[in-house]
Design goal:
Strand content: 25-35%
Distance between the termini: 75 Å
Strand order of the largest sheet: 3-4-5
Helix content: 25-40%
Shape: globular
Number of helices: 4
Largest sheet: 3 strands, antiparallel
Number of strands: 5
Mean pLDDT: 88
CATH class: Alpha Beta
Number of domains: 1
Length: about 160
């Protein structure tokens, strides 16, 4: 039996993963999301069953600490991480890259940005869906639509 090429197996992984159920909830803003853990579990199972390994290399492309006062002295850190993942089997290699960004009021901005980079690198590599548009913002869209209607209404109809 002939073994698939790495590209063919990665295409199979894409088909097998397809969708990741939202399993987390942001307590501050109240939205649901698919966690990095859920993405990793699904992708890792599919890759390992095909004998595909992953190596990674991360670069910190931005890091900033801002000091401010809000009753007491506080710090906010911002980070952007560029991640390259390389899928490996034997002599075959396929590389993908992605960015992750984070802001944190403690010391976790870099780690959070790295986790986001892993999640979105895999999401983009395998075109993973969460079942909705993650950029959708119904409140903003409704306000923009309302303002557009006001501008397009002829003055005599006021």
């Amino acid at each position: 039996m002939e073994k698939n090429s790495l590209h063919a197996d990665l295409a199979e992984v894409m088909a097998a993963v397809g969708y990741v159920q939202k399993d987390g909830r942001n307590k501050s803003q109240g939205y649901k999301y698919a966690s990095a853990e859920a993405v990793l579990k699904k992708v890792n199972a599919e890759l390992s069953s095909r004998g595909i390994a992953i190596s990674s290399e991360a670069d910190l492309v931005h890091f900033n600490v801002t000091q401010y006062k809000d009753g007491k002295e506080k710090f906010r850190s911002d980070a952007v991480v560029r991640l390259e993942l390389e899928f490996i089997r034997g002599d075959e290699r396929v590389a993908v890259s992605g960015l992750g960004a984070s802001t944190d009021l403690g010391d976790k901005a870099v780690m959070k940005a790295n986790t986001a980079a892993i999640k979105y690198c895999l999401t983009n590599a395998f075109l993973i869906s969460w079942g909705d548009d993650p950029e959708a913002d119904e409140k903003v869209d409704a306000e923009v639509h309302r303002k557009k209607e006001i501008r397009e209404t002829p003055e005599e109809n006021w």
